[in-house]
Structure formats: C-alpha cells, structure tokens
Design brief:
By secondary structure, this protein is mostly helical. It is built from 6 helices and 2 strands, in the order H-H-H-H-E-E-H-H. A two-stranded antiparallel sheet has the order 1-2. Helix 1 packs antiparallel against helix 4 (93-113), helix 3 packs parallel to helix 4 (93-113) and helix 3 (45-59) packs antiparallel against helix 5. InterPro entries: DinB/YfiT-like, MST-like. Pfam families: MST (PF04978). This is Putative damage-inducible protein DinB.
Length: 199
C-alpha cells in the first residue's frame, strides 16, 4: 500500500510555482512596460504582482488570525476601486516586489505553522460561507494566483513577445518564428472558415 500524499506539501508546491511564474513575468521589462495597461480594463504586470501580494496577506494572514502588519492603503474602505491593481508613480517596482516577497514569506509561514484542517474565517466573504480550512484556502489561492499568472503571460506577450512558463522550462514547442507565424495564420483561417460555415 502506498503512502498517502501529503496534501499540504502538494498544495504548497503548486502555490509557490504559481507565485514564481507570475513574478518572473517582470524580468527584463522596462519601467513603462511593467506598468502600462494592455487591456481595456487596465491589466498590467506590476499591478498583478501588487494585487497578489495583497491577496496572499489576506487569505494566509487575516483569515487565520495571523495579520502581517503590512500597511495596504489600497485595501482601505475609502480606497478607489482597483487601487490594488496598478502602481502609482510614487510606488516603485522594487517596493512592490519586496512586498510580494514578504507576503509570500508570511503566507509560507502560515502554511508551515498550521495543519491542513486548521479553520479560519475569510472576513470579506459572506457570513454563511466564510468559515474555511487551510486546505480550502490553499486550493482557492492557488487557483486565483494561477489565473493571474495566466493574465501576466498574455500581457507579457503583448509587451515584447516573450512567452512561456519560466526559464529554463518555457513549456512551449521548440520551433522558430516562421512556424509560429504559419501556425497563427492557420488558426485565423480555421476561425474564418468556422464563422463562415455558421457553426
């Protein structure tokens, strides 16, 4: 009979991988490209990092009675909407990345200190479902950070064409620019054909 998997270790590993993938998307981009909005709703690389730093401190801090003490003015009740999803000119990239790393360390300490069945309360969730276990929060947070890492993948590709998971494993086929161009054209033709056929 095999040993049952260690749920905390497995979930924590995926959480760390998602965090690392998101942060890696800032590597090698200019100050402007780190901050500029590339979707109609303003999605930008540094804002995603700032947002995830805040989210981690909430879910793996406050939820389990382990507040970090980090000031997060963009989360105050009187803050403007989406204040956690972009960086002001006064907020340096270095400060936001440092906050991200501190939030990761605080989150990791919570995961290491508590059993997977530990119970907490998510203050911003409705009262009838705000009681959660560490297991549930790890699943929820890993899914959320992975989603934002996917946003960052697309934004980074729009910035400078950089693609892939992270170095050295980019998780992409080993092909050249001509192959990608032909592939994209093939997909465009397929989309047009499907639209023209009414399906």
């Amino acid at each position: 009979m095999s040993t049952p998997p260690d749920l905390t270790t497995d979930l924590h590993q995926y959480l760390r991988e998602a965090r690392d993938s998101l942060l890696a998307k800032l590597d090698g981009v200019s100050e402007y490209d780190a901050r500029r909005p590339l979707t109609p709703t303003g999605t930008n690389l540094l804002g995603l990092v700032k947002h995830v730093a805040s989210v981690q401190l909430g879910y793996l801090g406050e939820t389990f009675g382990r507040p970090s003490g980090e000031p997060l003015p963009w989360d105050d009740e009187d803050a403007e909407p989406n204040a956690d999803l972009w960086a002001t000119p006064q907020e340096s990239r270095e400060e936001i990345v440092a906050l991200y790393r501190r939030s990761a360390a605080h989150a990791d300490a919570t995961v290491e200190a508590l059993p997977v069945v530990a119970v907490g309360r998510v203050p911003w969730w409705p009262e009838d479902r705000n009681e959660v276990t560490l297991h549930r929060v790890l699943v929820h947070l890993t899914a959320e950070i992975s989603r934002h890492a996917g946003h960052a993948d697309i934004v980074r590709e729009l910035v400078d064409g950089s693609v892939g998971l992270r170095a050295p494993n980019d998780n992409l086929p080993d092909v050249d620019a001509a192959w990608w161009s032909a592939y994209r054209e093939r997909l465009e033709r397929a989309a047009r054909e499907a639209a023209g056929s009414g399906s």
